[in-house]
Amino acid sequence: MRHTLSILVENRTGVLSRVAGLFSRRGYNIESLSVSTTDKKEISRMTIVVEGDQKTIEQVTKQLHKLIEVIKIYNITGEEFVERGLAMFRVIPTPENRAELMQVVDIFRGHILDFSPTSMIVEITGGEKKILAFEEALKPFGIAEVVRTGEIAMVRGGKSKNAKGENND
Amino acid sequence: MTSTGAEVLIRALEQQGVELVFGYPGGTILPVFHSISKSNIKNVLTRNEQAAAHAANGYARVSHKVGVCIATSGPGATNLVTGLANSFLDSIPVVAITGQVKSSLVGTDAFQEVDITGITQPITKHNYLVTDANDIARVVNEAFFIASSGRPGPVLIDLPKDVAMFACSEKFFDQLDLPGYKPNYKGHAIQVKHACEALQKAKHPLIYAGGGIILAGAYQQLQTLAERISAPVVTTLMGLGAFPYEHSLFLGMPGVHGFPAANYGLCSADVILALGVRFDERVTSAVENFAPKAKIIHIDIDPAEISKNVSSHIPIVGDVKTVIEDMLKRLTPVNNQQRLNEIAELKSKNEYLQQRIQSDKLNPRQIVEKMSEILPADTLITTEVGLHQMTVAQYYRHCYPGCFLTSGGLGTMGYGLPAAIGAQMAAPKRKVVCVAGDGSLQMNLPEMATIKAQKLPIKVVLINNSCLGMVRQLEDVSYPGEDLFAIDLEGNPDFCRLAEAYGWQSYRLEKTEDIDKVLIEAFASDQPVLIDCIIDKRDYVYPMVLADDPLDKMLMP
Ligand SMILES: Cc1ncc(C[n+]2csc(CCOP(=O)(O)OP(=O)(O)O)c2C)c(N)n1
User: Fold this and answer.
1) Is B112 a catalytic residue?
2) I need a labelling partner for B394 at 20 to 30 A (CA). Which of A9, B89, B120, B346 fits?
3) Nearest-by-CA chain B residue for A43
4) Which residues contact A8 (CB under 8 A, 6 or more apart)?
């Protein structure tokens, strides 16, 4: 099963390498990872999507907790949450199917970022499923390059998993 | 007032109560050594940084303080690695300080530059690369706190040479900035209640205790608990000494070279109370067959140990001493004569070990047994790694907690001799004996010079079988009938003459009838002494559980 962990860490050099090292060392596979600052400059947030059974995820979480610079870990998998990733595709349409491509982009509410006689860059934001569906839809046009961010996630409703490390449920 | 980074470092160490460090100098660490030379801290110069790291481990285990080792950048730092990994796996509080090339050169593959914080990331509890001298006092504070609290472990501080030489302020000596580090000491009350109920209802309860008991100082609580509920006790290699060897409830050490009673006991228990242990594969053997009938209660300070290797039914995270004390408030005495009879019956399986002592040929079991008889009960015993180590585990009558220093988790050949240095420095009045194999002894052999220089009356009992005995046995049973490979230590020196070259006294022991005389005389000396005991190559350790076999399938030829 796919788990989404939202982790607050101290914003210090080396933290990313400790977290990434822990995953590789213990044989856990990171599906996606995104790191950014929070509203507090001394704290960063990592959103990690990891595949594994309950036992594996429990171990991952406990091992992550042992890292001194990890402040708080929220496994939001079981909660209602919104997740977003961003992807850019370089597509090589022909003069004949260019219009059709633009329709597809429209249906998915994507954007065209760059337009040249030989290629187009299109962008999409959304959850994992939407991005994959969009990719499928683009395939017939010929995808030359894909660049994707890791996902970020937020729990719905009034519950914040904020940088004070508080969880006001 | 301003000082240099190195001066602040030394003052911060003094503030932590450090009196002694094990250090080996070099260019980038020189400012630190210069400051040590102006302070009240004593430096013990080992002959290899690895030995400094092991000595700091031995010192920590005996003094119950944090051990400190210091090395220069590059090769000095990499030589520490084995020692740090060893302390990491055995949860021993050590702080290592390494020099680093000056900040402007970091990342350029400069002379003697290695990324030691990167290298030690998986084998330290935490590490620091200090980039601002004003952080030094805080970092030292944090390092000592992290090393010694919760589940203890090594912490490394990497200090670039320019940072050590910068002027900086001396303030902030009490600072800690660790928002994500909060070890939990108190066990969950409802879980404690469940654990007590399960123990009280059990027909065949068994206590499986480990190094955590010694680290937490919970041996009295352990004994009270076992006696209260009439449960037999097994202790791991790291836990030996936590429960009296002669006690009627003691079944011995479990595992691959475990005591028969301990292994059978684990296999037949219906409730296992695991205290400060981590279900290491050397103990469980085939983990899927481990303790098939048992409900497992696991108490440990480290939440990540719970259900890591073996799923536990009642997990309790907390300090094992605090949790046992909470349990003792609830547990009522169990006086069950039938159970005591069963335990006595189980214990009789250990007679096998006694039978293996008798032989007219000199064997290590006789020697270790005699050591138990002759040496004072508070003697500090260190071992190297191999058959001799298992012989000490099986035959030495460990009766005080914390007196047995061995490399459990990493199984590091080369640990015993330097650990003896640390032990003797921590307890100058106690006897310190290192039991070594001829293979292992040669890993950190030059420490004989450190011992001489520091005037330490350490005794080395060398179980000399002219081979890498434990691997020989493994080859013999794994590939029967085939030629033995890469285990013959041909070219060994005459260890007695070697000892004398280091200014030690020496004895050679070849016959059973000389054991008494030689050991008594050697142990009475106020000098370092090596006793070279000549043993047959084919003298192996039994029982032996082969890889992936269940614990009750023991090889006992
Ligand atoms: C540093 C290191 N290298 C290799 C090993 C693998 N190993 C385990 S026991 C052993 C043989 C030890 O020989 P010796 O010290 O002579 O002890 P004996 O088994 O003969 O008593 C070896 C090579 C190890 N544990 N540590």
Assistant:
1) yes
2) B89
3) B179
4) A38, A43, A44, A45, A70, A71, A72, A73, A161, A163, A165
Ligand 1 midpoint to CA B546 (Å): 18
Cβ pair A163, A43 in contact under 8 A: yes
- Report the alpha-carbon angle B173-B175-B177, nearest 5: 150
> For the whole prediction, is pTM greater than 0.90?
yes
Q: Is B467 helix (H, G, I), strand (E, B) or coil?
A: strand
CA pair distance A52, A3, nearest whole angstrom: 7
Domains and CATH numbers, chain B: 2-169 (3.40.50.970), 189-352 (3.40.50.1220), 358-534 (3.40.50.970)
According to DSSP, the residues that pair with A65 across neighbouring strands are none
pLDDT along chain B (557 residues), means of 10: 91 96 98 98 98 98 98 98 98 98 97 98 98 95 98 98 91 81 95 98 98 97 98 98 96 98 97 98 92 95 96 97 98 95 97 91 97 97 98 95 97 98 98 98 98 98 98 95 95 98 98 97 98 97 95 94
A–B CB contacts, 8 A cutoff, strictly below: 38
Note the pLDDT of residue B156.
98
Would you tell me the crossing angle of helices B515-524 and B364-374 to the nearest 10 degrees?
50
Three-state SS for B36-66 is HHCCCCEEECCCCHHHHHHHHHHHHHHHCCC
**Eight-state DSSP code of residue B237:** G
- Helix, strand and coil percent figures for chain A, each rounded to 5: 30, 40, 30
- Can you read off the two tokens belonging to residue B247? 């006690």
Which residue segments constitute the domains of chain A, with CATH numbers given?
Answer: 2-75 (3.30.70.260), 82-152 (3.30.70.1150)
Report whether A15 contacts A21 (CB < 8 A).
no
Contact state of A55 with B181 under an 8 Å Cβ cutoff? no
Residues on A contacting B at a C-beta cutoff of 8 Å: 9-10, 13-14, 17-18, 21, 25, 55, 58-59, 62-63, 65-72, 165
Give me the pLDDT at residue A167, please.
Answer: 44
Instruction: For residues B259 and B270, give the distance between their C-alpha atoms in angstroms, rounded to a whole number.
Output: 19
Ligand 1 pocket, CB under 6 A: B 384-388, 411-414, 437-440, 463, 465, 468-471
Question: Which chain B residues touch A if contact means CB-CB below 8 Å?
Answer: 117-118, 121-122, 125-126, 129, 146, 178-181, 302-304, 306-308
Which residue type, as a one-letter code, is found at position B309?
N
Closest CA to B314 of B185, B436, B192, B210: B192
In B292-378, where does DSSP find H-type helix? 320-330, 337-347, 351-355, 364-374
B470 is catalytic: yes
Residue A164's pLDDT band, with cuts at 50, 70 and 90, is low
